[in-house]
Every structure is written in C-alpha cells, then in structure tokens.
Specification:
By secondary structure, this protein is of the alpha+beta class. The chain contains three helices and nine strands. It has helices at 12-23, 27-38, 90-104; strands at residues 2-6, 43-49, 52-66, 69-81, 109-113, 125-126, 132-134, 143-147, 158-161. The protein starts with a strand and ends in an 8-residue tail after the last strand.
C-alpha cells in the first residue's frame, strides 16, 4: 500500500539511493543532501510501499527577481521514483500531495523545470504565461509555473533564482 509522508532523518540514505537510481547519477542526490544540510527546503516527502521508500519529492525556496523587487516562491524538484516503480502513478501522487501541502502551508506559487507533457496535468503552464523566466535560459515549454492561490502572479513578473546548490551540479 502506497503511503506518502514527510521524510524523516532515517530516510536520508534511502532518498539518496532513490535519486541516484532514478537519475542514473549522483547530481540530484547531492543537491538534495546539500539543501538538507542547510535546511534550505520547504517540503520533502517520500512515497513508501511497506517499509520501502520508492519515491521522493522536494520543494525548495526560490526568489523571483525583477528590477529592485523580488518575491518568494517554491521550486519543485528533484522528484525521483525508483525505476521499478515508475509509470505506476507514484510520481503523480507525490506531486499532488506535495502541492496540497504547499497550499496548506500558505505558499502561493510553485515553479518546475520539467517535462512539458507531464506537469500540465497538475495545472502547471509555461511560466512565460505569467511573465516569469528561469535564470538558466531553458526552453519555454520546460519551465512551468502554478498559482496555488488565485491571482498570485497579479502584477508580478521576473526571473526565478534557485538555491545555489542547483548551480553546483
């Protein structure tokens, strides 16, 4: 039975393994560990099947800067699912649970750098729709944003700046 819950300190090694298995490298796992060591994340959830952690999702603070002003939002990612459990809806359940918890915690905006055929099902749209761009200069269709609160982008625009750990990979 799939259970989604906040990560615990005991999950750290398993979360690393899930990220390494899902991405085929240690880059994302290193980012997660560095963010965790600085407590520079807003939400970290795991998906478990029995005692096995099979998925992980992380939301970290981002800053959206425009001229002399800025405002905060959250960046979704990385999200990782063990290869043996991919394409079974685990990722979708993690995203939905994560967005619901972000909304409950009072966050208004989430951005994601991800697959353009996957994230729109959760309400994400190209960030450019809202006048938002990414510091990395990525293609428009892979950088998306979601308003968790109606009108969250009203009168706001700018460039999303991620935590420094994302630039170290």
């Amino acid at each position: 039975m799939l259970v989604i819950r906040p990560e615990t300190p005991e999950d750290s090694a398993t979360i690393r393994n899930v990220n390494e298995a899902a991405f085929g490298s240690s880059i994302e796992a290193d980012i997660v560990e560095k963010l965790r060591s600085r407590q520079a994340y807003a939400l970290s959830l795991v998906a478990t099947d029995g005692d096995l952690v099979i998925g992980h999702i992380l939301f970290s603070p981002v800053t959206i800067e425009s001229g002399n002003t800025s405002f905060g939002a959250l960046g979704l990612g990385p999200m990782a699912i063990l290869p043996s459990h991919q394409r079974k809806g685990v990722g979708s359940q993690l995203v939905r649970a994560g967005l619901q918890e972000c909304r409950r915690l009072g966050h208004e905006i989430v951005v994601v750098l991800g697959h353009p055929d996957y994230y729109p099902r959760f309400g994400f749209a190209p960030a450019s729709t809202y006048g938002i761009s990414c510091e990395y200069g990525v293609p428009d269709e892979v950088f998306m944003a979601l308003e968790l609160g109606k009108g969250a982008f009203s009168g706001r625009s700018g460039v999303v700046k991620y935590q420094p750990e994302f630039n170290e990979g």
